[in-house]
Automatic annotation (TrEMBL):
Belongs to the glycine N-acyltransferase family. The lineage of its organism: Eukaryota, Metazoa, Chordata, Craniata, Vertebrata. Pfam families: FR47, Gly_acyl_tr_N. This is Glycine N-acyltransferase-like protein. SUPFAM superfamilies: Acyl-CoA N-acyltransferases (Nat). It comes from Conger conger (Conger eel).
Length: 288
């Protein structure tokens, strides 16, 4: 087990860039860390420099003071290209008595990880299976540009964090804190209404994925989501960021939206979100 320092983080980012789409989640974390947005992560590999598994996890000391969704769920971002290496790293790294969210496990490793958890007397629950939608080149974007005037397209600001959070799945102080950080630290974009308030928006998570895409019901059917995704994709590409998002398996509407814009996916790759000790969720996650 090897904890990555500043130089190793830069090297790992370069290596992971050649391993998309499986590495995108951890790559996105490292991209932000290496550009001065460290969040509260520590990054651990199974070995160095020839690593085969790598995990970004919340620093346990910081978790005591930093209250947001990622900290309270103990969210660990996972990448591996070898099952045995992943199992060894998880065995060495995890406190199997804690409530933990393992995010981004390749579905082909899922049974082995669940068996490892069972060996440690740790119950599990599969949260969700995702499809990774990627846009490798903005020239592949499909469809016409929007005729919205630029004055209606503006980044989100902290003043609208409560509004954005209120439209999400979770509504609590920890969820609000996450949204506030996303808006403050990473690119975002919104369509503004006549009163200046956002009527549609998209932002980035800590791991660099597009997320929180939402349009207020009375403003749907006007192409706002398409406009936002096209515009923010160009901005992210110009910044050298990967352009990608997760769509829940079976969500035909979101899948159709991304594919209609030119995003593609790798059919044989599915990342999974797996909860350890789900019975402890109510006490660990105040949003429940």
């Amino acid at each position: 087990m090897f904890v990555l320092g500043a130089e190793e983080l830069k090297s790992a980012e370069r290596i992971l860039k050649g391993l998309f789409p499986e590495s995108l989640k951890v790559y996105g974390c490292l991209f932000n860390i290496n550009r001065g947005k460290p969040y509260i992560w520590e990054v651990i590999a199974d070995s160095w420099p020839d690593f085969k598994a790598i995990i970004c996890k919340p620093n346990q000391q910081c978790r005591q003071d930093y209250r947001d969704r990622e900290a309270t769920t103990n969210m660990c971002h996972v990448y591996s290209r070898d099952q045995d290496s992943l199992l060894k790293l998880l065995s060495a790294l995890l406190d199997w008595s804690q409530y933990t969210l393992l995010a981004g496990i390749d579905v082909k490793y899922l049974d082995a990880v669940k068996e490892l958890a069972a060996h440690n007397n740790t119950p599990t629950r599969m949260e969700v299976v995702m499809v990774v939608m990627t846009l490798d080149d903005v020239s592949h974007l499909k469809g016409p540009d929007s005729d919205l005037v630029s004055s209606r397209l503006k980044p989100l600001t902290a003043a609208f964090a409560d509004l954005v959070d209120s439209r999400g799945k979770f509504k609590c102080r920890e969820s609000y804190n996450s949204v506030l950080t996303y808006i403050s630290d990473y690119p975002s974009l919104s369509v503004r209404g006549p009163d200046g308030a956002p009527v549609s928006w998209v932002l980035l998570y800590h791991h660099g994925a597009l997320g929180r895409l939402h349009t207020e019901p009375q403003h749907r059917g006007q192409g706002h989501a398409r406009t936002l995704l096209r515009s923010v994709a160009r901005e992210l590409h110009a910044q050298g960021r990967p352009v990608y998002g997760f769509v829940e398996e079976g969500n035909a509407v979101s899948f159709s939206l991304f594919t209609s814009l030119g995003f593609t996916h790798q059919p044989d790759y599915r990342p999974v979100w797996l909860v350890l000790n789900p019975e402890k969720q109510a006490s660990q996650d105040p949003c429940c």
